[in-house]
Amino acid sequence: MPIKTPVSPRGYVLFLMLTLFSGGLRGTTLTDSLVQMLKQQNGEERIQTLIQLGKTVQRTQPDKSLEYYKEAWDLTKYTGTKAKADVAYLMAYTLKNRGLKDSSIVYYDSALASYRLHADTLNMMKTSTMMGLLLQQNGRFKESALLFKNGIDLFPSFFKYHEDDPSISKIHLATMMTNYGISLHKMGNFDSSLYYHLQSYSIKTEANASDKAIAKELVNIGNVYSSMDKNKKAIEYFQEANTRFVAIGDSGNIRKCFNNVGLAYKRIGDTTEAIVQYMKALEISRAINFEPGIAISLINLSSLYAGRNETKKSEKALNEAMDIGEQVNDLQLVSNASQNLASLFFKLGQYDKALTLALKSEKLAAQSHERDLQEVVFELLSQI
Hints:
mainly alpha, disordered N terminus
């Protein structure tokens, strides 16, 4: 769903066409031409040129792109046009790509407010989704859920009159339902989450979405069933998803499915089958040298080894996982490995080691917004 920038003045469009298609000034690039145009422009016309400049250099010079958008943003403060929303959206998008999530959220929020003011439903849906995903990544699930639901509610009335518009389709609705389902799942609203994931799966299937998109929705459904402790049902969905991933040769998601099935078997109490599934995931990760995947499988296996009193195997697996997490600078992996190793040392009566590792895990879990893990670590710390 692309951002629709307001139409530029006729003279501006003709100049660009002459520059692009008639050769323009010899040796002059589009960027140079736009920079020259800025020297004689003010107001709305200048805003549009700055937007065009920002888009032109966005991939090659993101910092310069941000400068152009910032100047355009400052100018829009004195206008009531929709350009303010478009510039805010582009600012947010650029800041997101630079890893500045909090700043990006602020500009997405501003863009959304402006799109609402101009009743631009299409861009309201898109901006709600983009902002919701960032909030979701920051662990702000309730706020993200409200934004995704806003997009879902807006869709039916808009789509009714725009079915032939190539920029919108029912797959967009399914995507918003998927995102909403994920936030609901994180909030513990399993029944509602399952409903929206099943709705999304149905829409994607009917709309002939890609095998990968359908398979991922099957995984989402399996994850909710697993959280509801309906593990046999979860395994069915994970295995159906895995069949689709195998058909398209998606090794990364095949690995994830093996891990998911392994966890489900672990919850059922079938340790032997759980180890088999985790080992399959580990083999794939080692074959493609995917270090985070190796670490995840090792952490999963370690808990099963510990349950069998194979403490040496468990400790070795966790130390390797922690080393990998530190090498790739993955706070969540290091935190998880540290927590599991602390738990192992606690059971062995090695309380000093357990305390050091638990404190390390809690600090990293806080930094990476892993609230569920923090709760587990707090419980472990109280026991130590």
